[in-house]
Automatic annotation (TrEMBL):
Protein name: Histidine ammonia-lyase
Pathway(s) where this gene product acts: Amino-acid degradation; L-histidine degradation into L-glutamate; N-formimidoyl-L-glutamate from L-histidine: step 1/3
2,3-didehydroalanine (Ser) modification, residue list: 143
Family: Belongs to the PAL/histidase family.
EC number(s) from the headed UniProt entry: 4.3.1.3
Listed InterPro entries: Aromatic_Lyase (IPR001106), Fumarase/histidase_N (IPR024083), HutH (IPR005921), L-Aspartase-like (IPR008948), Phe/His_NH3-lyase_AS (IPR022313)
The species this protein was found in: Staphylococcus agnetis
This protein's UniProt keywords: Cytoplasm, Histidine metabolism, Lyase
Gene: hutH
Amino acid sequence: MTLRLTGEQLTIQDIRDFLAHHDNVEVTEDALQRVKQSRATVERIIQNKETIYGITTGFGLFSDVLIDQQKYNQLQVNLIRSHACGVGAPFADNVSLVMMVLRLNTLLKGHSGVTTDLVEQLTYFINERIIPVIPQQGSLGASGDLAPLSHLALALIGEGRVSYKGEILDSAAVLKSLHRQPLTLQAKEGLALINGTQAMTAQGVITFIEAESLGYEAEWIAALTHQALNGITDAYNENVHIVRNFEEQTAVARRMSDWLEGSKLTTRQGEIRVQDPYTLRCIPQIHGASFQVFNYVREKLEFEMNAANDNPLIFDDGDETLVISGGNFHGQPVAFALDFLKIGLSELANVSERRLERLVNPQLNGGLPAFLSPEPGLQSGAMIMQYAAASLVSENKTLAHPASVDSIPSSANQEDHVSMGTIASRHGYQILENVRRVLAIEAIIALQAVELKGIEGLSPKTRDKYDHYRTQIPSITEDRQFHKDIDVMAEALKNVAYHA
């Protein structure tokens, strides 16, 4: 399959399919024409010796320094080399790959003034899966993701490192082996590659894809817990949720009822107790609120995925040409969305940990063995799995602190307010991984709990889940290294995001 890029209509679902199916990208002819028209404007600026930021001047505080015409191209190379000072562990390959796709898509809007050579080089790198090694730390999130995107650009010009066929290699060596020339940057092109929010947005898109999927997986896990605790189904009655007006809440209630349909382990109000604790009764309200967050974040990310966030921007309608220095590279809208995503994700783990605590606590689990131990006292069972979950949700509370409320001036106070959106995106993925492990722990414990309650009583749909995951997570017949089970279950939950 092929992902056709227009600069206008890219969706998160497109990115998910691109990653799941290992697609290639293709640039539409209309988009390529916009690129050519925009480049022609840059060439006229150079020919007319106009003073335009980043084309004929320096950058940041040096924006008033005019550059010799013979050195315009060298200016762009110097920019990339000097700004490629990211530190820390690299972004995952899928994040860096999506970063290239998003940068290409924004260049195709025709407001950046790049050459078709640059478009072709980016397309080649994407389709050949030559993935730049991009350190995660070092971006302030305005003037865009300068440091991360400079490492991306380095690879295009044959000076950086890349991940290629499972190895980390010099970009120049890979290009030579493929008989491909490094890109020669022209005027404006270095700036066009790095002025933007593609690092934070790419990581945000990956986090979103896996977060939304995990939100759905949390429902069948919660349904197992619900049955293990003989939960009351009345609270999921659609009438209750319709009068609250939140569509996401109603949808979760409907799906929970569907998961539980036909169960012999559930109860009605008054049969065992009148009301369940909030962690069971309020699943639609709590999970539904997280889906509200996801829907908000999806919209903001998709706006940014199709945005012109370069500086300066070129507008040429045939009658009038404008080259305007603005601030579309500022990551504040994305930073807010990604901080919000952190909160919505964290809450899925908070409620999951409280559910799994009810499963292992003999005062709350309705007669199940303490910690589901096969031999209480001799065997600890799930005791420390709950500890691990509690540790992860506590860690999330510190990671969920909003990065976007911070700012440090840079470039001698020329760039005096920044978004820190890339920090928000990185912390968001750390939270996601913690949430996934908490839900993995709940799933392992719930599988054991329903087994003790009697799997013949499970609803058909959750019985299918039980049968599937029992092939990967054995019953707890004696203490073992449960961290291995947690890793297996967490990886299975991650893989669903790209294979469902």
